[in-house]
Amino acid sequence: MSHIRGKDTKPEILVRRFLFAHGFRFRLHRKDLPGKPDIVLPKYKTAIFINGCFWHGHNGCKYATIPETNRDFWLAKISGNVERDKITYQRLKESGWKVIEIWQCQLKPNTKDVTLQNLITQLHNE
User: pTM for this structure?
Assistant: First the structure.
């Protein structure tokens, strides 16, 4: 567990490179915002969270399965993460920030292009 990254994950770097290549400038992991969003675009007042399907309990996703061993621990851990995410997103929205959530499974090779184009569309519809 100590080797699992919280920052600079492959999905996060993929989104950062895409945004930068399309002219968006951003800040990373701003500590003054609730939840320390993975990517912050101050110009668009938008916070982007790139969530792992397993760790953040992505509903209906094949990557969000609960392990068979120590099941109670994992259910409590993941449901706690889901609740914390809801509270974080709500606090950001109350502060006037737009919140975009990107799931790890949305960045797989077969859906990556659509997801990233939707991200650009969401940012331009401000």
Answer: 0.91
